[in-house]
Amino acid sequence: MIELEINNQTIFRVSTKKIISLLSLAQKQIKQKGQKNISLAFVSPIQIKKLNKIYRKKDEVTDVLSFEDDGASPELGEIIICVIRAQKQAREFKHSLEKEVLRLALHGYLHLSGYDHVKENEAVEMEALEEKLMHKFYAKN
């Protein structure tokens, strides 16, 4: 089960129900058991750039960051999404902002669940899983 705490520092409004539904679908697909608590924050480009510089040593705006918890509790971690960046990407991909935010939340969740895209084979696997889950989610909704 997914428990979601949202910290929205923007004017963007999102359906918590849809995010929980998508992440629960992912949890089931990757066979992750138990309750998972996730903190999800929506921030400005300035805020995410600052975090990206501190934690990844990259002085640039990014779309999503994820930070794992220490594993001592049911906390899975934190996902931080830059809504302005998501809006730009939604236009590029020709889909809604809501769909892009859902995709980024899923991407962050997969990172928190141990998936990565540093190596090409990992990137292919993670991208395929994201696409599969998004397709399943939208087929149901």
Explain the overall architecture.
With 141 residues, the protein is α/β, with parallel strands linked by helices. It has a single domain, classed as 3-Layer(aba) Sandwich (Collagenase (Catalytic Domain)), CATH 3.40.390. Helices cover 52% and strands 20% of the residues. It is built from 5 helices and 4 strands, in the order βαβαββααα. A 4-stranded mixed sheet has the order 1-2-4-3. Helix 1 links the parallel strand 1 and strand 2 (36-43). The longest helix has 21 residues, at 120-140. It starts with a strand and ends with a helix. The mean pLDDT is 91.
Question: What's the arrangement of secondary structure elements?
Answer:
Elements: E1 2-8, H1 16-29, E2 36-43, H2 45-56, E3 64-68, E4 75-82, H3 83-93, H4 97-112, H5 120-140
Parallel strand pairs: 1-2, 2-4
Antiparallel strand pairs: 3-4
Helix pairs in contact: 1-4, 1-5, 3-4
Characterize the overall form. globular
Low-confidence region ranges:
none
Query: Could you tell me the mean pLDDT?
Result: 91
Category from helices, strands and their pairing: alpha/beta
Tell me which CATH architecture applies here.
3-Layer(aba) Sandwich
Number of domains: 1
Number of separate helices: 5
Biggest sheet strand line-up: 1-2-4-3
Give the radius of gyration: 14 Å
Beta-strand fraction estimate: 15-25%
The percent range for helix content is 40-55%
Kindly provide the name of the CATH class: Alpha Beta
Spatial gap, N to C terminus: 19 Å
Per CATH, what is the topology?
Collagenase (Catalytic Domain)
The ordered H/E elements are EHEHEEHHH
Assign the CATH superfamily: Metalloproteases ("zincins"), catalytic domain
Number of extended strands: 4
The profile of the biggest β sheet is: 4 strands, mixed
